[in-house]
Design a protein that fits this description.
The protein contains five helices and six strands; from the N terminus they run H-H-E-H-H-E-E-E-E-E-H. The chain has 146 residues and is α+β, with helices and mostly antiparallel strands.
Length: 146
């Protein structure tokens, strides 16, 4: 379903808008990313798709990589060297991430926009910058207080 401003809002519409092949796997993976407010590991995506869509590890990795290449998803590396993925639901999706040191989850902080004030040497072109904050998520912080 499209929103009032005709911005693609469903996984199918987003895939069509990016002129990608609309497959059941791509729809299922993007649906999971769109429905989750935090970044998910490959394993977490697989667990959420389990039962809805049969797919192997390699297909899931390729699908996630394709979504990142198309700008439909972000890939964030955690301190544990595990990639996490989240949807890139807006055209200008620059935002910070928060990595919880206790539970390892990575959250998107859509309201925190990284201020990029770097002076690069001549002939360097910046494509993107990542800001990841580290600490305790609300649940882990509350658990420590209890």
């Amino acid at each position: 379903m499209k929103t009032a401003d005709s911005t693609p809002s469903t996984a199918r519409e987003l895939l069509q808008a990016h002129h990608g092949r609309v497959t059941a796997t791509r729809i299922a993976v993007l649906d999971v990313l769109l429905a989750t407010p935090r970044a998910l590991t490959h394993q977490e995506v697989a667990e959420q798709i389990q039962g809805r869509q049969a797919l192997d590890r390699v297909t899931l990795y390729r699908t996630l990589d394709w979504l990142v290449e198309q700008g439909l998803a972000h890939r964030i590396e955690g301190n544990d060297r595990v990639w996490r993925f989240n949807s890139a639901s807006r055209e200008d999706s620059a935002h910070a991430h928060f990595h919880c040191r206790d539970c390892g989850r990575v959250f998107c902080l859509e309201q925190v926009m990284p201020a990029i004030a770097v002076s690069l040497p001549q002939d360097f072109q910046l494509d993107r910058a990542e800001l990841t904050l580290h600490g305790l998520c609300p649940a882990c912080h509350q658990a420590r207080l209890a």
